[in-house]
Amino acid sequence: MSTVWTLTIDCAGARTVAAFWMLALGYVERPPPSGRESWAEWLAEQGVPEAEWGDSAYLVDPEGRLPSLSFLKVPEPKTVKNRVHLDLQVSGGRDAPAAERERLIRAKVAELVAAGGSVAWESPGPAGLDHVTVRDPEGNELCVV
Length: 145
Prior knowledge:
Layout: E1 6-11, H1 14-25, E2 28-29, H2 39-45, E3 56-60, E4 68-73, E5 86-88, H3 98-114, E6 118-125, E7 128-135, E8 141-144
Parallel strand pairs: 1-4, 5-8
Antiparallel strand pairs: 2-3, 3-4, 6-7, 7-8
């Protein structure tokens, strides 16, 4: 039996970073807790000051199969390269034709850059582009493969 888990990303701007990852992964905002009309209603019930309501965001896989994501505001900035990162597997794998792989990778990278990301570096493979490392709006790395 496996353990249910959530990936939590510390950040300065939870809503901004969550919006980027929503686009990157095709996730949606997590609905408010059962019996609540909104997150604001739940936060008010929990006694969270209204000034802190934007300090977190939660995303889920719309099909309910993959892990959820939490974004939590922290005071310190990111300072070093991530030791753990996500690979967005958009190209069809290394068995796909090199030109098609590159087209799919570059299309996703362009989408992420338009959403506030930036290209960190490109990694060539023996037959063409292997992957591109992208940073989210706060510098967290991910690879588009």
